[in-house]
Amino acid sequence: MSTGPMTIQVGHSPDPDDAFMFHALANDKIPTGRYKFVHELVDIETLNRRAFAADLELTAVSLHGYAYLTDTYAICSCGASMGDNYGPMIVAREPWTIDDLKGKTIAVPGTLTTAFLAMNLCLGGQPTTPAREPHTHGDAGAFKYEVHPFDEILNVVESGKCDAGLVIHEGQLTYASQGLNLVVDLGKWWMQETGLPLPLGANAIRKDLGQPTMDEVTAILKQSIQYGLDHRQEALDHALQYGRDLDNAKADEFVGMYVNDWTLDFGPRGREAVALLLQRGHEAGLIPNPVNLEFIG
To answer: Could you confirm whether 169 is annotated as catalytic?
Structure first.
């Protein structure tokens, strides 16, 4: 007696690089064998928090968020977003330096984002509220912060509601069009500190699926990424519908930043970067427990 296909619920963020990565799966461009993929598009901080309930079989996560999920999820070796000497940015209306941020209020896209972890490492922040606890504002000593949806942060800074903003996704390419100034590129800062790329996001797969399914689903995900890279314009056309304020050239640039060789496989250097980032986070008191990493594929 044959059973129907096994449903794999996939969560990823509605931004061009994730859309590019999942184009082949979302639009039936590759065979998926005994699996049926059902997609949910949700912002990354919501996915980080949903992952505590482990309701999705495959989900995008911030690597900071993953520090709290090691009991239930493993990391797929493909699907990484790596900032290779670039990454999340702190921007402000004034042409400030890092020192000028002391005591200021910074708009952030979520406390479980890797951007938030990197910002605390860079600025010496020590938030009094644990990152895992949902909250809308907090005090990190070196600065204060307010949580806002990632796609509202540039507006929040431009309007003067916050002194500065922590920018992820395509805002990294568009902040200047709103008259804002770059204070620090955290990917550049991390590269100067460590000589390594800044690992930002990954895809995590639920461990209770068992090893064969984890391996098979990760292999299909890798095929989807490879398909996008091999059919670039077609995948870009799909991704463009999620690129707020990006034209084709800027969407191409943004996708190139975050879907590339790193995305096909973390590789030894990428895995080293993940381990070091989470170790530094733990040593700084920002992550409560040492993180035991498990990669699939």
So the answer is: yes
